[in-house]
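User: I'll paste a sequence; please echo it back and then give the predicted structure.

Assistant: Echoing your sequence first, then the prediction.
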Amino acid sequence: MSGRLEALLVGALVVALIGVGWFGNVYEVSLAIIVAVHVLATVGLTLLLGFAGQISLAQAAFYALGAYGSMIGTVHLGLNPWLALLLAAGASGVVAYLIGLPTLRLHGHYLALATLGFGIIVNIVLVQETEITGGPTGAVGIPKLALGPVSLAADRAYFAFVWAVVLVVLLLCRLLVTGSSYGRVLRALQASEVATASVGIDVTRYKLQVFVLCAVLGSIGGSLYAHYLTVISPSEFGFDVSIELLVMAVIGGLGSVWGALIGVVAVTLFLEVLRTVAPMIFPTVPTSEYEVVAFGALLVVTLLFFPNGIAGTWAKLPAALRPARLGA
């Protein structure tokens, strides 16, 4: 994505955020906060799949580790919420390192299945360990965050804070993949793992580092989600959540870190419209059923007609239109 398009995207995002924060109702502000934490979880997948060429179906598990790590740290251990968030992120990174050591030596669907197995294990533990996690009913009483004397309990205050975090993370990730030698290695790794290894680069080390970064970002998103809602349950971190995050990354575009933002916003808006329109057309069909069908249809259409995602298509649009203008 060119610098001009990036500047346009960031400018449009800032204007939209100001509009929602200033004029939005309670539901719109709350929805925007959920979008923000989903962006944090999805940008890690964009780095892992789009730049390192590795697929993971365990992002919801790290999302859960962040949420439950913050819950355990604050509710059970009485820690400061910020310390609990950092410890949860660190623990998620350690777990990702231990999981990644054996699994990242696998390729393709074998890697996807291995990470899927880890996600299922985490969800089972969350359900079964009732004394620690609260079991199927979940946990309550997670404290709100505060910046010193400034409370973030109000939705609009939390909205401003969480989107500031998202913008900083996106900009840092953008610098990582486009403005450093590390990013060039990741692009080479995505293009050909064998060719990258042939020039003496330790591809396993780079894949492991990105996998850990992906997990940490997912954990931070989960912690911010838990401190916002103050109530969590295992059903919010199941396998379907990993699929949704992965689909958001693919639809947004894996070739740009901005694809995570675009994908989450696009899919969220699509589902909101669907929940409004579909009951009028199919009044007897349960919401969960047509959401699954529509979600799959959206992914198929994207892969068929926009294989590079929304961000990739947008980036190629000026070049595609240029010959038409010259011919005119």
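The chain has 14 helices and two strands. The radius of gyration is 20 Å.
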